[in-house]
Amino acid sequence: MANNIMLYWGSGSPPCWRVQVVLEEKRLQGYQNKLLSFDKGEHKSPEVLAINPRGQVPTFKHGDIILNESIGICLYLEDLFKSEGVQLMPDDPREKAIILQRSLESNNIFQKIGDIACYNEMVPENERSEAGLQRLKDALSLELKLWEGYAAKMGTESYVAGKNFTMADAVIFPLVALVFRFGASQTKYPYLAAYYNLVKNRPSIQATWPPHWKENPNKGDMLKNV
Amino acid sequence: MASSIVLYWGSGSPPCWRVQVVLEEKKLQGYRSKLLSFEKGEHKSPEVLAINPRGQLPTFKHGDIVLNESFGACLYLEDVFKSQGVQLMPDDPREKALVLQRMFESDNLTRKIGDVAHYNRDVPENERSEAGLQRLKDGLTTELKIWEGYAEKMGTESFVAGKNFTVADAVIFPVVAILFRLGVSQEKYPHLAAYYSLVKERPSIQATWPPHWKENPNKGDMLKNV
């Protein structure tokens, strides 16, 4: 039942957003949820740490079953609620393989965005340098080029794994959205932009759009030159 | 059929080893196996790049289906060959959740080992420092304490997700094995050591033990102080 699902989440966090998308697609909209503020350090609160010692979001409970890894949660929900809502993992082995391939491969994007976005947080001041940060930006550029290539092969009316929206889109769309939110150029990555524009209007995506992005639609520019 | 499976792998690489363990457990021993040398750069050969543009291992094909993400290959194999060999993903939601949790969570451990082991490869000389490397070693120590805690809670006759060997063990054992291979102290992490000693005797693990570790059983000492 939806009401014995509890999701702790942060606005704009792709690992949280993807779980929310899956919950919508599986018709589990009645779930309990708590929006936490990263700025106020609420992800490190005793309430969260009691469930997730890593103090990270998403933190997720189904009854007293705990699962705090976003792709794990997506797989779990699709499996348990297989007959409800939209089928996010096809039975066909070929389609299943491409979904698993792209979903897991997308961690490369997430890592590389995080390396840049969290640079000052993760690298002590005496180890930081312009060259160091630029190296990370160059790595993200290379990564985005690879995904632009995948998107070009997909075609403009296609989802990650083909004609249908699948778990791969739930996992990957939030990352693409974040990249453009942070100022990546839609002219430089036209196929990723086409994918973004195709998927952003899907009801489950609209229903879970990060609240603080709605309040402040202005893009950042951290990634404008990648 | 096993003969339509091809695995390109490198000796001692945990992502490769875990796929080999799953192939053994699913009774797919007839697969075509291609051992490549990282040192000779064979993972960047045209043959591999044609299947895996990232030039990484494992690179995996089932017929013409390509899946180059180790978790993806493991989950795919368990799903497609569900009725064969050992059941590696439980049906029970609680057990399933724990398998997925630990499996995905283990990426933290794998990455932090890589950060230390690949420091000179990944960080340009002018950005390296003793302090920088020590910071990464400290990160690994913190992570190891988490896993030692999990192993202690599991008890000495237990696998990662409970009484039975699952895909979580296929994923995690190779990572634990590489820790001790690189010199981590079994005295400092006695519960991880107990897990290592329990699982290393399993036939699928023995059958896939890294060949160059057999040739040279001497441990390294890169991680002896973490």
Characteristics of this structure?
heterodimer; A: 226 residues; alpha+beta; 4-stranded mixed β-sheet; 11 helices; 8% strand; globular; B: 226 residues; 10 helices
Topology, element by element:
The complex is a heterodimer of chains A (226) and B (226).
Chain A: E1 5-10, H1 14-25, E2 32-36, H2 46-49, E3 59-62, E4 65-66, H3 70-80, H4 93-105, H5 107-117, H6 119-122, H7 130-154, H8 167-181, H9 190-199, H10 203-207, H11 211-215
Parallel strand pairs in A: 1-2
Antiparallel strand pairs in A: 1-3, 3-4
Chain B: E1 5-10, H1 14-25, E2 32-36, H2 46-51, E3 59-62, E4 65-66, H3 70-80, H4 93-117, H5 119-122, H6 130-154, H7 167-181, H8 190-199, H9 203-207, H10 211-215
Parallel strand pairs in B: 1-2
Antiparallel strand pairs in B: 1-3, 3-4
Assembly state here?
A: heterodimer
Number of DSSP-assigned strands of chain A = 4
Mean pLDDT of chain B: 95
Q: What is the end-to-end distance of chain B? A: 43 Å
Low-confidence stretches of chain A: none
Overall geometry of chain B: globular
Measured by residues with Cβ under 8 Å of the partner chain's Cβ, the largest interface is: A-B, 33 and 32 residues
Order of helices and strands of chain A: EHEHEEHHHHHHHHH
Q: Over the alpha carbons, how many angstroms does the gyration radius of chain A reach? A: 18 Å
Average pLDDT, all residues of chain A: 95
Residues in helices of chain A, as a percent range: 40-55%
